[in-house]
Amino acid sequence: MNDALFYLDAADMAAEIRAGRLSARELMQAHLDRIADVNPRLNAIVTLHAEEAMAAAAAADEAQARGEALGPLHGLPVAHKDLMQTRGMRTTYGSKVHEHHVPVRSALVVERQQQAGAISIGKTNTPEFGAGSQTFNAVFGVTRNPWDLDKTCGGSSGGSAVALAAGMVPLADGTDMGGSLRCPANFCNVVGLRPSAGRVPQVPSVDAWSTLSVSGPMARSVRDLALYLSVMAGPDPRDPIAIAEDGARFRQPLGRDLKGMRIAWSPGMGGLPVDRQVSAAIDARRRTFEDLGCIVEEACPDFRDAHDIFMTLRAHAFESGLGAVMDRHPGVLKDTVVWNIEEGRKLSGPQLARANKLRTALFLRMHRFMEQYDAIVLPVNQVTPFPVDQQYVTEIGGVKMGSYIEWMQSCYLVTATGHPALSLPCAFTDDGLPVGLQLVGRHQGEFALLQIAHAFEQVNRTGRRRPAL
Q1: Which residues face 173 on adjacent strands?
Q2: Any residues with CB less than 8 A from the CB of 15 and at least 6 apart, and which?
Q3: Cys staple from 155: which of 28, 130, 135, 177, with CB 3.0 to 4.6 Å?
Q4: E strand or H helix that includes residue 62
Q5: Domain contains 191
Q6: Half-sphere exposure of 184 (CA within 13 A, CB side)
Q7: Which residues contact 330 (CB under 8 A, 6 or more apart)?
């Protein structure tokens, strides 16, 4: 098999197809062969439409032969997180409740990819309803990390990250409430972006006004991430918080001189317990930013109240979105989802009002901090990938975690601020496990954030390493 083909950048695949040097059918067959080879060991793609994908690839080639206009993702295989409604394709949300569910309509984020010429090949694994940063469920089982099959790939967009890292697709989507795009990207040595709320419209949505959970792109390079975001982003009248800016902006060149840009450096994130391998790996890359001309200063935003804000609003979101599901199917949902719903039912009006007031104050503190800095460097995860048979982390550096998600504070404290953040490959531990760094940008400042990440990536080539499958 031609490894060079299925590990090409998505932008290069698209360019080769557009130039007539590669057909959509050849590209699709290479990826389907790769899936057949490695997916049985990894369990990343849990629903596969191979025949339909090959038929769509043939149709893409025929359309190109007729001289039809080609979208920016023409002929590229993509996979969708199993939380994304996908018309005619089994969509289970990782739950026994929806084990045989086949939607009649697709989510907007799926429609936009297909309208851009991408070909949907299947669905990627996720924990039940995306709850938790370890990818396993009662429908499909566990997804394994391609860098070490005995380790977790993170979550909740774990199947997407593994499919990318293993060369099964060049692009895969995901969602992020408390780190679900960033955590698995970090654990699998790929790139994942949590955009600002409204950058990628959420249609359909149970709560269209919510800013906690977002959809976004995952890829193997920052350039591909920007390309993918360009077709996901852009306004839609059905989303009341959608950002008006046209997504095509993200197809502009990312090259930029970083001289004089100010970077806040906080590998310890203001006192959170962080595994020494993680903080050491990030600190070792400080010189990279300095060599790029950045002014790097040790500084950390005031994340006061962010934990309580996130936990309150998350519980409310779970009750709002899944409370009725739990009532209709007692005893079916996993215990951590039930716990989140029950926590939501305990909330009072004054508690929600307090959380929103505190979140406003947090955003304003973060805004003032970001007036001084162009980006912040933080850990993505406070730990390295842990054993796949362990559901979640219970202790970090002797500090006990208070819930099944508290080990993800390094991600969800950033969520509470509303600022965009991405996970970027940074280094590897001595035993060969990926460590990424989290770059946080200004509110709605995704393009500048991508430029900084791209410049770092051009110097630090960690993201070009591939697992030995």
Answers
A1: 217
A2: none
A3: 135
A4: helix 50-65
A5: yes
A6: 43
A7: none
3-state secondary structure of 150: strand
Cβ–Cβ < 8 Å for 195, 72 = no
Evaluate whether 232 touches 247 at the Cβ level (below 8 Å).
yes
CATH number at residue 134: 3.90.1300.10
Residue 469 within a domain? no
Segments in 329-384 forming alpha helices (H): 335-345, 349-370
At 126-157, the pLDDT tens digits run: 999 999 999 999 999 999 999 999 999 999 99
Average pLDDT for the chain: 97
Closest by CA position to 212, among listed 39, 422, 355, 111: 355
Cα separation, 120 vs 108, whole angstroms? 14
- Give me the domain span that covers residue 387: 3-464
pLDDT in tens, 274-283: 999 999 999 9
- 31-32-33 Cα angle (round to 5): 90
How confident is the model over 303-314, as a mean pLDDT? 98
Domains held by the chain: number:
1
Query: Which pLDDT belongs to residue 3?
Result: 64
DSSP-assigned letter for residue 401: P
Which DSSP helix (H) or strand (E) runs through 68? none
pLDDT for 446-455, tens place per residue? 999 999 999 9
Across residues 242-257, what is the average pLDDT? Answer: 98
Q: Which residues are catalytic?
A: 81, 156, 180
Residue 318 in domain? yes
Instruction: Indicate the helix (H) or strand (E) that contains 421.
Output: strand 421-428
